[in-house]
Amino acid sequence: MSIETKKPVSFEFFPTKTEAGHEKLIATGKALAAENPEFFSVTYGAGGSTRDGTLKTVLQLDQEVQVPTAPHLSCVGDSKEDLRSLLTLYRESGIKRIVALRGDLPSGMGQASGELRYANELVEFIRAETGDHFHIEVAAYPEAHPQARHFEADLENFIRKAKSGADSAITQYFFTADCYFYFVDRVRKAGVDIPIVPGIMPITNYSKLARFSDACGAEIPRWIRKQLESYGDDSESIAAFGTQVITELCQRLIDGGAPSLHFYTLNQAEPSLAVWRNLHGK
Ligand code: FAD
């Protein structure tokens, strides 16, 4: 299996709580930088819980590792003033891309108190404050957002968000290529032509993946679940099977016209690299 020319690729990280974790993250960034990614991105804890960590990680990856790095920014729980000052800081630091989200407040953080309720309002706010300075990414949900009333309502909301000034979108991860193709087809039929990049989750640990997938509404097909369950704690078999399944998914997505791939690295280089190298027959 191999793709002829390299597709653009991007890698996502989360800011860590400890200095040791941060050092490891930067080392991971350096390993992935060798693949010439289009950009890195760094998540943001809704309500500002990782404001300093996100900022520090973004600036270090961007300036020291020298890969253009996009902060994620969410509006739930942040005031317009908080958002404005972060946007100013990022702009003054030469950051050119941002991932704009509504976010989910961590449990225990209380009621959302942000002035902006949905991501489309955040996109409008960023455009109003900063014009065309930022390339704005938004989130897309080929299997529908878990809180959506139904698929059609979520599709309409995505289309509104795209039209409010987004340049491109990154999807929630999924394991069935058809949901991506159906979603893209419906978005195109609505006259929206921004790139929609599949978010790719390497498989390395079944129980964590199952928990996370339940929360974010990503379906793990029965045949994948059954296979992963059968491996128990055998992490080598999980990694080998996971790499094969995700490589085949990526190949189908690329063959079907996906413009690039965005890997949720969970701050580890090897699982994403194994898939990326497989795709190029390395
Ligand atoms: P929205 O697009 O606002 O949608 C949220 C819900 O509201 C959906 O059900 C939608 O159908 C509905 N909706 C949207 N607009 C409207 C409207 N105008 N009126 C009525 N209903 C509406 N979370 C974090 O906290 N930090 C991160 O760094 C982070 N990074 C992410 C990166 C990617 C690529 C993805 C896919 C998700 C990420 N998330 C992150 C998770 C995300 O914040 C959650 O999924 C959140 O619940 C929704 O965010 P959103 O931007 O998609 O929201």
UniProtKB/TrEMBL annotation:
It comes from Halopseudomonas laoshanensis. This is Methylenetetrahydrofolate reductase. It comes from the Bacteria. GO terms for biological process: methionine biosynthetic process; tetrahydrofolate interconversion. One of its GO terms (cellular component) is cytosol. The lineage of its organism: Bacteria, Pseudomonadati, Pseudomonadota, Gammaproteobacteria, Pseudomonadales. GO terms for molecular function: FAD binding; methylenetetrahydrofolate reductase (NADH) activity. Signal peptide: none annotated. Its cofactor is FAD. Belongs to the methylenetetrahydrofolate reductase family. Coiled coil: none annotated. Its EC number is 1.5.1.54.
